[in-house]
Design goal:
The chain is mainly α. It is 50% helix and 0% strand. It is built from 3 helices and no strands.
Amino acid sequence: MRTTLTLDDDVADFLKTQCRLHEKPFKQVVNETLRRGMGPGAGAAERPRFRVEPIRSGFRPGVDPLRLNQLNDQLEADDFGSESNR
């Protein structure tokens, strides 16, 4: 169906931004946005699930993770000591 629609400036700006971000034509973005606004199951396509792929990232050689709390305590004590000298 073809129709003329007057949009508020902020709505038009939002839709144009979505077109650029998703590289989709204006008509498609307007229809998808209206479908989402009509509620669940109104013909909206299901989005693919977002997956997080974990990577292994250990400490550098020579860093003892068991001593990190001790280092943090020492830094806090040094910071506290420097504040009392002000």
